[in-house]
Write a structure and sequence with these properties.
Helices cover 37% and strands 21% of the residues. With 204 residues, it is α/β, with parallel strands linked by helices. Bound molecules: guanosine-5'-triphosphate (GTP) and magnesium ion (MG).
Length: 204
């Protein structure tokens, strides 16, 4: 897919404030510092598009970007944010849960996972929650340029093993590097296929 245009639409505090749910939508989320902003910017080839980084935020921000006037990219700052208090974290988690469970046009949640470290409890829990809620997800392993491919492979295998305790069929997985532009074509064609399915179903 060629990225012709990206427009920031709005930041919403909750599901009810989000833009009309008419176009297919994809969430990008993950723990803080996982490389979310870098990945989003690499995907849409815009620098500083996703600049949600320095705001530890007391409330959830659901950031909608309209791509090619055809689909929404949603930047959803990391779950389990370490600097939040427990109460804020719970509020945030509830808002996130409300959003991913009820957003009608949501096609898929891309969960970003750092390929440089073994599976983290918060990642595994979040991915398992998505399964429990029946929300489709895919995993994008980030920063694969940092370690040897062997070590990246080991972490990916550990994650698969972890998830197989819970999942019958593993979610789709991508290896990415914002620095090396790795994974861009794969993720974008995956989105393109999902978009095609969305518009096909509309026609029927
Ligand atoms: P917050 O918004 O602060 O939670 O972080 P984020 O998830 O948006 O991560 P960000 O893109 O800001 O990247 C965090 C750090 O990882 C930065 O120092 C980036 O330069 C680095 N980083 C991001 N992607 C890559 C990558 O593909 N390879 C390498 N080597 N470093 C990366
Ligand atoms: Mg960021």
């Amino acid at each position: 897919m060629e990225i012709k245009q990206v427009k920031f639409v709005k930041s919403s505090g909750s599901l009810k404030d989000c833009p009309p749910a008419k176009l297919p939508e994809y969430v990008f989320t993950g723990r803080s510092n996982v490389g979310k902003s870098s990945l989003i910017n690499m995907l849409v080839k815009r620098n500083e598009l996703a600049r949600t980084s320095s705001n530890p935020g007391k409330t959830i921000t659901i950031n909608h970007f309209l791509v090619n006037d055809n689909w929404y990219l949603v930047d959803l700052p990391g779950y389990g944010y370490a600097r939040r208090s427990r109460t804020l974290r719970n509020q945030w988690e509830l808002a996130l849960e409300e959003f991913v469970k009820n957003r009608e046009n949501l096609q898929l949640v891309f969960v970003l996972v750092d390929s440089n470290i073994p599976p983290q409890k918060s990642d595994v829990e979040f991915i398992n929650h998505l399964a429990e809620w029946g929300v489709p997800c895919a995993i994008i392993f980030t920063k694969t340029d940092r370690l040897s491919q062997h070590k990246v492979g080991v972490n990916v295998q550990l994650m698969k093993k972890e998830l197989l305790n819970y999942w019958e069929e593993l979610p789709t997985m991508f290896l990415s590097s914002a620095n090396k532009k790795r994974g861009r074509a794969e993720v974008l064609s995956f989105i393109e296929e999902c978009n095609a399915q969305f518009f096909d179903t509309l026609k029927k």
